[in-house]
Design a protein that fits this description.
By secondary structure, this protein is an alpha+beta fold. The chain has one domain. Helix content is about 40%, strand content about 30%. It contains two helices and eight strands; from the N terminus they run αββββββββα. β3 and β4 form a beta hairpin. The longest helix has about 60 residues. It is elongated.
Length: about 170
Amino acid sequence: MDVKKWDELFHRFANRLDAQRQRQEQERELVAWYDEQTKLVMMLVREVAHERAAIFERATGQRVEVAWPSRPPINVGPEGPFMSFMSISRAEREVHLYSHRVQTGAPAIHFVVNGKALTDRKRVLSHAGCRIERRVGGGFVLLDASEPSERRELSADDVAFRGFELLLQTD
């Protein structure tokens, strides 16, 4: 066989390996960026929730507890999933905000509500929150996950508000 064909075969293989390594490095960088931004978003939401809890307590005399992290994060390898947890609670009702990312997908924040319903039966309800995506030009943008087709931007205040809204519902 021609030595040139062997060289071409080995060269193509080496190029594929280089492309694969480059893709893996880009994915590692993206995952690291997502994890950093998720922590930042959760810290921002926690700060807003703490401020709103203090205002709520002054206005109503009722205490709202905010905890982040409310439990240890889950990180099952580089492919995920990665989850972190925050809770907003009062009396017998809690709202859990959890961030979730699988592989190189954009992280999302969801809400899980638990507490006693008017029927005195325990129930758990899940609600879409937001996705964390890269903003063109740098930084992150929070996009409403309840209406993904609209690409409506949210703030940390919007996310905290939704948590309080779910917490203060009576049914």
